[in-house]
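Narrative summary of target 7.
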Amino acid sequence: MKLDALTTALAIEEAGEYASGLEANGFHGLWVAETQVDPLLPLAAAAVRTSTLRLGTAVAIAFARSPMVTAMDAWALQRASRGRLDLGLGTQVRAHVERRFAMSYDRPAARIREYVLALRHIWGAFQKEHRLRFAGEFYRFDLMSPFFDPGPIAHPRVAVYLAAVNEGMFAVAGEVADGIVAHPFSTASYLREIGVPAMARGLTRAGRARADVTVACPVFTLVAESSTLAADEAYVRQQIAFYGSTPTYRVVLAHHGWAQVGEQLSDLVRAGRVDEMPRLVTDAMLDAFVTRAATYEDLGRRLQERYGGMLDRVGLYGDASRISRSEIGALRRGLETSPAGRPNS
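Modeled conformation, tokenized:
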């Protein structure tokens, strides 16, 4: 597994230094979530300060943007980064798409499938492979004047990742995407028993192989030797409670028999009692969602044991820049060790 970092907030003015530090410490990629800023903006700053680091959105909200807008922004960033963009797209949940972005959310699985096909068609038109002429159920594109055409680039194959939580999205991603960004609110059990089989069904439907899809997932971790362990655990409990309160993600809790906890978390949100939410996150839930270790090298081994064979890229959820270079080196050594204790070839 390759080692990534994920941050839920990255200021544009800090992105270049942040990304170059991750690159120097040996990270494979940086994923930026769309929370308080369009993630493509800090990644644009990062693109011109790095040379090897993969740059990903985890995720950009697809339905908040026309595919043409996404295609143009991604094309510009792919050019600036010389082919290092991982365009992670997500459907978000109905309330946010309809009430925060005032956009349509109907039939999200079918819509995101067509969205990906539209992106690839638009990029093919930019690259002069064909005329712009896309007509689907949700989107139509057939006008591209030379003045607005960005034209060909050296690395035209943009990797498209789809966010997946439920079975339907895992299947769609297996059918049409280059990769999957699994949600941090996933457990190894849920991925193994629900996500991966659904992805396999999508692959079969499209006549594709497992090697055609890269599976990435940011994960929660706690390391005993960390000087900020107490704060880290409080943060992890808060994040698990936040995600668990979202009805769309309740399938993960239900898989473990914790659906009632999700309902209780939603009740607390509605009552405005958000400070009480972390108390509902039990130790059993922490064990399922969080990979714990004594040292960073041990963390690498435990991540390999837990996710080996499922994930191709594992991301550290949170601010990875605060972990020292030596600690990251130890973590990578652990990741390179097979569950049997032998270095992976």
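The longest helix spans residues 108-126.
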